[in-house]
Amino acid sequence: MTGIAAALEEGLLILTMDEPERCNPVGHAVRRRLVQLLSDAEHDRAVHAVVLTGAGGHFSTGGDIRDQKAVTNIAEARDRFSVVKDLVGRMVRFPKPLVSAVEGWAAGGGFALALACETVVAAETARFASSFGKIGLIPSMGLLATLPARIGFARAPYHPRLGNDRCAGGVPPRLRGRTRTGRWSACRSQGFRRHCGRSCAFAEAYVKDFLALEVDRALEFERQIQPTLLFSADALEGRAAFFEKRAAVFRGE
C-alpha cells in the first residue's frame, strides 16, 4: 500500500494522499511513489498540471514515525533521505503547474511537501505547523529553504522552533473550485504559454532552477545531519513521548 490515489481529469492529474485514518503520513513508500508519479507526469503530454492534496479533510500530518522504526542504522537513513532529495528536488523544478491543495493540517513533512509545490492553495480550514523539534529533529524535506523563501528569512527561524506555531489562510473562492475542477491550473498553464511564448517558458525553467539551488543545499544538509539525529537519545525520547502521548524530556544527547 503506497497511500497515493491518482486520477486524471481533463488534463489535471490529482494526486491524493489517501490514508485518512492516520491523516495521510508521508512515509518512505509514499515518497517513492510520488517520485514515480511526478516523473511519469512530467513526460506525459496528457497531463497539463498536477494537484497534490490529502483525503479525509487533512493534507498530511507529516512523516510516518512508525515507518522510522524500520530504519536500523545511519547509512540506511541516508539512503532514505536520498529519496527525499530526489522528490523535493523534482517538485521545485517541476516544469508544469504544481499546486498543493491544503485542507486541515499540513504539519511537519506535510507542511514541507505543500511548500515544495509551486503554488499553495489553502482552504479556510488549513493549518500549518513545523513540529520536527518535538521529536528531536531538524526541519526536513527542504523546509529549511522553502519556508524562508515563502515568509522571509527574518520570520522563518521562529517557525521551526515552535512546534505548535500555526497560521491559517483562506483563499476565495473555495479550495475545490480553484483546484479540483482544474480551472486555476489549466488557466495558468494555457495562459502562460499564450501570453509569454516559448522563450518565457525557458526563462521560467531557469528561474526555478536558480531558486532550487538553495533547496538542494538544504536537502543535502538534511541527508547528512538528520540520520544522525534519528539515532540520538533526544530523538528516541521524542518518539517514545509521541507514542505515550506525553511531553518529551530532552537532555541534549
UniProtKB/TrEMBL annotation:
Q: Name one Pfam family in it.
A: ECH_1
Q: SUPFAM superfamilies annotated for this entry?
A: ClpP/crotonase
Q: InterPro entries, per this entry?
A: ClpP/crotonase-like_dom_sf (IPR029045), Enoyl-CoA_hydra/iso (IPR001753), Enoyl-CoA_hydra_C (IPR014748)
Q: Which Gene3D superfamilies match?
A: 2-enoyl-CoA Hydratase, Chain A, domain 1, Lyase 2-enoyl-coa Hydratase, Chain A, domain 2
Q: What does the similarity note say?
A: Belongs to the enoyl-CoA hydratase/isomerase family.
Q: What is this protein called?
A: Enoyl-CoA hydratase/isomerase family protein
* Organism encoding this protein: Neorhizobium phenanthreniclasticum
Question: What lineage does UniProt assign to this protein's organism?
Answer: Bacteria, Pseudomonadati, Pseudomonadota, Alphaproteobacteria, Hyphomicrobiales
